[in-house]
Amino acid sequence: MNNVTSITRLSEGRSGLWFYSHGLHKKQAFRLLVYPNAHRNNGFTPTMPEHPSDVRTDGKTHRSLFERLTALISPEPENRAELLEVLHDAHERNLIDADALSMIEGVFQVSDLSVRDIMVPRSQMDVIDITKPIEEWLPIVLETAHSRFPAIEGERDKVVGILLAKDLLRYYAEESFDVRDMLRPAIFIPESKRLNVLLRDFRANHNHMAIVVDEYSGVAGLITIEDVLEQIVGDIEDEYDFDEEEDNVLSIKEGQFGPRWRVKALTEIDQFNEEIGVDLPEDDVDTIGGLVASHLGRMPHKGEVFDLENLRFEVLRADARQIHVLLVEKIPVSEDEHD
Question: Would strands 120-121 and 219-224 be described as parallel, antiparallel, or unpaired?
C-alpha cells in the first residue's frame, strides 16, 4: 500500500497545528501539501508543473499552497455568520444557485423575526361583522376574494372566529343558514412570537391564519402561513399581499426609537419621502429599493440592518437578485447633526 495514504488525521488544537500520521514524518507530510501529485512520480520527488501555477488545461483553477493549507487547517464554522460566509462563498463558486442560497438565508431569518415584523396591520384587515345581515358584508367577500375572514362582533377587538369563504356556498344551497355555525375557532398569538415557532404550530394544528394581539389583548393584526413561508421561499402571490399604491408604505407599531413603516422596495422615492416626511435624494434611482442597493454598493441580505440619514433600514424580504420589503424606523438625530 502506498504510504501517501497513511496520513489519517489533521487537527487544530490549543497548542497549534499537529499531525497524526503513520509511516510519514512531518517533512514528508509537508512536502505532500506542497507537491500533491509528487507521489505519482516515484515517491515524493517533486516535478515542475507544465503550466503556470494559476492556469490548468482542464479548466479548473489551480489552488495555491496557501489555499491548500488554509483549507486543511481552517476550523469548521462556529457561528451563523461564519456559516453564511461559507454559503456565500459556495454561491460565488457556483456550487449552489441563488434560489437555494436565498431559501437557506430565509430559514435562518425565520428564527430571528417575530410576528410583529411581518403581520398584516389591524387597519389593513378585511373583516366581516356577523352582527349585520349577510347581505351587507357579502359584497366585501366577493370583492376582496380572500379565502378566510376574521369574524367580529361589532368591533375589531371582538374576533369570534374565522369564516372560510367556501362555507358561504351553503348560504345559496340551504334555506336556513346561520353564519355562526360556519365559524372556525380563531387562534390568538402574541406579537412577540417567533416565526419559526409559529410555523411549527401552523403545521401541527393545520391552521392557516392567526389573529395577533398586543400586550393589552387588543387585536394588532393577522398573519397567515403564506406570510411565514414567504420569508423562506420568496414572494407568494398571497391574497393578503398589499398591492395598491397607497399601501406601499404601511405604518406599524412604533419601535425602540420611533415610528416604523413596512415599505415595498418598489415604492418610488418621492412617495416614500412624502409618506415618511424625509428628503432622500432621487438623482440616479427611482425606487427606495434601488436607493438602498446604491447606498450599500451591493445587494443586501435578508435581516441586514443599516442607517441612512436619520432612518434605520432592516431588510425583511429579499433574495439574491432584488429587495422586496423593508422595515424603516426613524431614529433620533444627534446634536452634532443639528449643528
Answer: antiparallel
pTM beyond 0.70: the answer is: no
* Distance between CA atoms of residues 190 and 187, nearest Å: 10
Distance from the Cα of residue 238 to its chain's centroid: 17
- pLDDT for 111: 81
Whole-number Å distance between alpha carbons of 185 and 223: 15
What rounded mean pLDDT belongs to the chain?
76
Residue 30: φ, ψ to 5°: -65, -40
Contact 224, 119 (CB under 8 A): no
pLDDT bracket for residue 193 (50, 70, 90): very high
Q: Name every residue whose Cβ is closer than 8 Å to that of residue 72 and which is 6 or more positions away in sequence.
A: 10, 33
Cell of 163: 369564516
Cα–Cα nearest to 252, from 117, 157, 126 = 117
In contact, 20 and 9? CB cutoff 8 Å: yes
How many angstroms separate the CA atoms of 138 and 30, rounded?
Answer: 79
Residue 37 has pLDDT above 90, yes or no: no
d(CA 108, CA 300): 15
Q: Is 309 helix (H, G, I), strand (E, B) or coil?
A: coil
Residue type, 113: L
- The helix (H) or strand (E) run that includes residue 143 is helix 134-144
Domains of the chain: 3-75 (no CATH), 111-237 (3.10.580.10), 242-339 (3.30.465.10)
Tell me which residue has cell 432612518: 311
